[in-house]
Structure to design on (549 residues):
């Protein structure tokens, strides 16, 4: 069984008036199928309102499905008794770094998760040290989070999730509020966790550049999964992506335009290096 | 101007007082405050003074730094002194116009001023030598028995520590909104009190909305990290009494006994 398996997942936000009559129903997820294997790096792309954040909240059981099934780490999310197990095995990092840091000292914030699941004190110290090291923030352990940059805060948040020793981390637009430097810091840290520690990563974003390192990409629009495949396969369909209001990375766009103009470069070019090599081969 | 607010200011130093368990310090502060209202004579006053200054010396916090905290109570201090000075009945020492100063009034005013000043100095030792986190931890643990009568002690302590974490964030946010509203022509400075109060509305409404949004986000983040109340929680830094805490308790007990004896016999 896959680490995450969603079948025909539906989520409806129901708005009711004062008399509890249904005023309107917004279908945020509309029959989503999702499969993620352990150790994979999966990106979920989508424009605002595509349902990607709703999907993320399901993976951590912060929301419950209206219909359909979702299995995380072999456990059914409908089962109340496995709620804490699921939250521990699939940690979550949110968009705003300020609003997810609980303590006023970095190391105490990282300890918050392990404290909640009842890890013994001596083990908490080890975990805090290990997870702060894994995101390169160990030298800030006694700092106040208020003095850190956005990227650093977000890395502390990731360390806070890592300290619970999850098998999977779901990141819900972790870079949306960061400057380019902070964005790179966070993505590097995430990539490293995936490669070195084998942590399954589910990165939810609307920045196309961020999904290049992913193993597989799901594209969502209007609550449905509309495309899925390797980044290369996804990026070769520039017209389709544009129709889902997603911006293609500049390099890929350039290669696409060159192809259209008759220059025979291969499809789905992702990095500057690849384009340079492809062009050099031509002449 | 908003950045000057410092709540629970902590003065980092390596002293015996800093190393004490927060519960010990809370207890000692309570006893100390009680003792302030027990002394009646100069001998009692001397005992309290001796105790206070010994602790200040031990805490390694510069005295000038502590005195700064007194600025906040200057007005209250003056009012108390003036009322006590002029309104205490008794044998008049000096009288002019309708006012008279009595011997008892002089004594009362003097002692009241000293009590207030000592109260602030004594309790500021607690906040200056204890980090806010230690303080909430200490409160949580000392108040734990109240759990039996359904006082949500853990929740209160958690709220306090979250409040402390968010004070600087909300101050920054207030600054930001203020600047944004000023840029749109809002006027927070001129006019009478009513007008000024009304001018705060465009500041407070966005601040409240954003605070609620933050609270919602934070609640989600806490739930995602398996927070489910105080049951079954462990601590990264659990409070543990050490040898010096025992000594401190003995000294505080001795001090209290001395103050009571002095009140009895002197």
């Amino acid at each position: 069984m896959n680490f995450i398996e969603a079948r025909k997942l539906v989520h409806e936000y129901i708005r009711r008036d004062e008399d509890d009559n249904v005023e309107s129903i917004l279908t945020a997820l509309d029959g989503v199928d999702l499969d993620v294997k352990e150790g994979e790096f999966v990106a979920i792309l989508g424009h605002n309102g595509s349902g990607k954040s709703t999907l993320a909240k399901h993976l951590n059981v912060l929301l419950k499905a209206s219909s359909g099934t979702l299995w995380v780490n072999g456990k059914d999310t409908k089962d109340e008794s496995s709620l804490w197990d699921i939250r521990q095995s699939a940690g979550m990092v949110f968009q705003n770094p300020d609003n997810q840091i609980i303590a006023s000292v970095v190391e105490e914030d990282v300890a918050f998760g392990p404290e909640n699941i009842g890890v013994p004190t001596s083990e908490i110290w080890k975990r805090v040290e290990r997870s702060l090291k894994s995101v390169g923030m160990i030298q800030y352990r006694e700092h106040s989070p208020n003095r850190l940059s956005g990227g650093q805060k977000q890395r502390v948040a990731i360390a806070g999730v890592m300290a619970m020793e999850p098998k999977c981390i779901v990141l819900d637009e972790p870079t949306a509020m960061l400057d380019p430097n902070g964005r790179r810091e966070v993505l590097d840290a995430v990539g490293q966790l995936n490669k070195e520690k084998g942590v399954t990563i589910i990165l939810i974003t609307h920045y196309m550049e961020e999904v290049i390192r992913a193993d597989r990409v799901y594209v969502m629009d209007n609550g449905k999964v509309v495309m899925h495949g390797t980044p290369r396969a996804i990026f070769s369909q520039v017209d389709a992506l544009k129709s889902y209001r997603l911006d293609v990375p500049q390099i890929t766009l350039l290669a696409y335009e060159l192809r259209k103009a008759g220059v025979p470069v291969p499809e789905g070019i992702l990095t500057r290096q690849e384009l340079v090599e492809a062009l050099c081969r031509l002449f | 101007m908003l950045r000057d607010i410092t709540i629970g200011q902590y003065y980092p130093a390596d002293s015996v007082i800093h190393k004490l368990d927060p519960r010990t310090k809370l207890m000692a502060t309570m006893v100390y405050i009680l003792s302030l209202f027990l002394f009646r004579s100069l001998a009692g006053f001397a005992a309290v003074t001796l105790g206070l200054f010994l602790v200040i010396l031990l805490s390694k916090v510069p005295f000038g730094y502590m005195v700064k905290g007194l600025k906040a109570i200057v007005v209250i201090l003056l009012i108390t002194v003036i009322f006590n000075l002029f309104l205490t009945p008794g044998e008049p020492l000096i009288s002019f116009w309708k006012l008279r100063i009595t011997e008892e009034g002089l004594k009362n005013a003097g002692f009241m001023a000293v009590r207030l000043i000592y109260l602030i100095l004594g309790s500021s030792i607690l906040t200056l030598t204890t980090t806010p986190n230690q303080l909430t931890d200490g409160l949580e643990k000392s108040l734990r028995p109240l759990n039996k009568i359904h006082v949500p002690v853990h929740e209160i302590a958690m709220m306090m520590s979250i409040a402390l974490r968010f004070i600087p964030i909300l101050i920054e946010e207030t600054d930001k909104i203020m600047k944004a509203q000023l840029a749109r022509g809002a006027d927070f400075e001129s006019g009478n009190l009513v007008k000024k109060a009304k001018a705060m509305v465009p500041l407070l409404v966005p601040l409240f909305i954003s605070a609620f949004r933050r609270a919602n986000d934070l609640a989600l983040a806490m739930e995602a990290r398996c927070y489910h109340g105080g049951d079954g929680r462990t601590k990264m830094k659990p409070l543990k009494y050490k040898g010096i805490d025992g000594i401190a308790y003995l000294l505080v007990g001795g001090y209290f006994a001395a103050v009571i004896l002095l009140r009895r016999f002197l």
